[in-house]
Amino acid sequence: MSLDGNAETAETAAEEGLPPLRPDAVIVEAQTKRGKICRLVDNTATVAVTELEELLQELIAQDLFQPLGLSSAGGSSIRIGAPQSGHIQLGETLYRLIVIDHEARLEPF
């Protein structure tokens, strides 16, 4: 049985301990420099679509959508596709930004 990209992303998100997507989550999509589809999911449903589209283009320009090998601080193993996370301020609001392969998610901070 094959899974579509959304099912695979949901499965990966669950494995990474991310909160489930809200029913009203806002999703914008684009193509990476390598032609792969990537998306930005606003799981707060509070950011304007135009602002999400601009942020997605910035993330693409920074080449963040690709499987990366990361190790935990002090770890001796590398985990391919490990999520990257940080914080981003849009307007007056601070959000958690999580990037897993070809998906970026905005979560409440």
UniProtKB/TrEMBL annotation:
Biased composition annotated in UniProt, kind: Low complexity: 7-16
Region of interest called Disordered, as start-end residue ranges on this chain: 1-22
Organism domain of life: Bacteria
Stated name of the protein: Uncharacterized protein
